[in-house]
Specification:
This protein is of the alpha+beta class. It has 2 domains: 34-176, no CATH class; 182-367, no CATH class. Helices cover 28% and strands 21% of the residues. It is built from 10 helices and 15 strands. The chain has helices at 22-34, 38-50, 60-72, 77-85, 100-110, 117-130, 133-144, 157-161, 190-195, 278-285; strands at 6-7, 14-15, 166-168, 174-176, 182-187, 198-207, 214-222, 236-241, 252-256, 262-264, 289-291, 309-311, 333-339, 350-356, 361-367. The strands form 4 sheets. It has an 8-stranded antiparallel β-sheet with strand order 10-9-15-14-13-12-5-11. Strand 3 (166-168) and strand 4 (174-176) form a beta hairpin.
Length: 369
């Protein structure tokens, strides 16, 4: 017997249980953190420092710490000091504001061949979050002159750096792989979506030559809106894709023109049938998400229920996946995240969009559990 459809008591969304949907529950938890006074935030930081060893056990103190980082962008210097003292290095975000002394000690440990690969991987992630000139130079040195711990790591320091929002090219030039601001996509109306400088899911009327499904502009951005000045896009761009194909083809690329159309860069068929019907596409195209009025902390959307956002940091369900531009070979820049189940009921995972402005190329990626 089919389960009876109900409505979320907060937003009215269709669910199959009594109460409120997961998205509304996450929004309520976010509001609780945002409503904390500065004094209460400092009190919470003190509690985290006193229980910092529990963070690696993924207990409730971990959730509290991550929410304060994501929604309040707290300075983590005190937490980093407490964590380092207790040997807690499996939660990289704790070290985004690590003091120079701890950064120096981490670099020194990685300079020794006695450090095992597992520990080295954690330390690289922590240092990537801390960033700075000293860390960049150390990563560049370890990339060019690998230490013994590199032997059992799947990727080099340049890839670990992307977890902190930066990397470097083959010539050793520093590159930012994330934008320095973040805006959320919030629920609006159909009329508001029509006026929004960012739109999710816009039909193109085209059909995919491989699966026959609808092709759409997964994301349209009007960079002329003052809120989006940080993107450096002087016009309108469209990330075109086949939503059926790219999740199964390890992502896809499209070539765009400012204030013009985009074209999907040809790819080989992967031998699967379309799983999304026209009705699914119409549901997605009918979403009413619009660009939020104000910016939020960079890691605001880096959560399971972080929603869709422009800029900042993504929530990588698997691993941080900054693609190399198929034209210039340099690391692309993370542009946006779309949480699938907010725009298409029952769809799992996130879509990610990256950009190389020099080559006018965008990548569309998908991850899920």
């Amino acid at each position: 017997m089919a389960r009876e459809a109900k409505q979320c008591k907060q937003c009215g969304r269709k669910i199959y249980f009594d109460g409120i949907c997961i998205s509304c529950r996450a929004e309520n938890e976010r509001k609780e953190i945002l409503d904390l006074s500065d004094w209460e935030v400092e009190e919470k930081i003190g509690e985290i420092c006193g229980r910092v060893k529990e963070i690696e056990e993924w207990k409730e103190i971990y959730d509290l710490c991550m929410k304060l980082i994501r929604y309040r962008d707290i300075n983590t210097c005190r937490i980093a000091e407490a964590a380092w003292k207790e040997g807690v290095i499996r939660c990289q975000e704790l070290y985004k504001d690590a003091p120079d002394r701890i950064v120096d000690e981490m670099i020194k440990r990685l300079g020794d061949d006695v450090t095992d690969s597992r520990t080295a991987g954690y330390l690289l992630l922590c240092l990537a979050q801390a960033g700075g000139e000293k860390v960049f130079r150390a990563f560049l040195d370890w990339e060019r002159q690998p230490r013994k711990w590199r032997e059992k790591l799947y990727v080099g320091p340049a890839v670990y750096a992307t977890y902190g929002g930066w990397s470097f090219d083959s010539e050793g030039n520093y590159l930012e792989t994330n934008f320095g601001k973040c805006y959320p996509m919030v629920r609006g109306t159909a009329e508001e979506k029509g006026k929004s400088p960012v739109k999710i899911g816009v039909g193109t009327g085209e059909r995919c030559p491989h699966c026959g499904g609808r092709i759409m502009n997964l994301l349209e951005i009007d960079g002329c809106d003052p809120r989006l000045d940080f993107l450096g896009i002087d016009g309108k761009v469209k990330a075109k894709c086949c939503p059926n194909c790219f999740p199964y083809d390890e992502g896809g690329f499209c070539r765009y023109e400012i204030d013009g159309e985009s074209e999907i860069i040809p790819y080989e068929k992967n031998g699967f049938e379309a799983c999304l019907e026209d009705g699914d596409m119409e549901e997605m195209e009918g979403n009413t998400y619009v660009l939020g009025d104000t910016s939020v902390p960079l890691r605001y959307a880096a959560d399971w229920e972080g929603g869709s956002s422009i800029g900042g940091f993504a929530f990588w369900i698997q691993d941080c996946e900054i693609r190399s531009c198929p034209c210039c070979g340099k690391p692309m820049k993370y542009l946006a995240q779309i949480q699938w189940d907010t725009v298409m009921d029952g769809m799992e995972g996130n879509a990610y969009i990256e950009i190389c402005k020099e080559c006018k190329i965008m990548a569309v990626l998908h991850q899920q559990t």
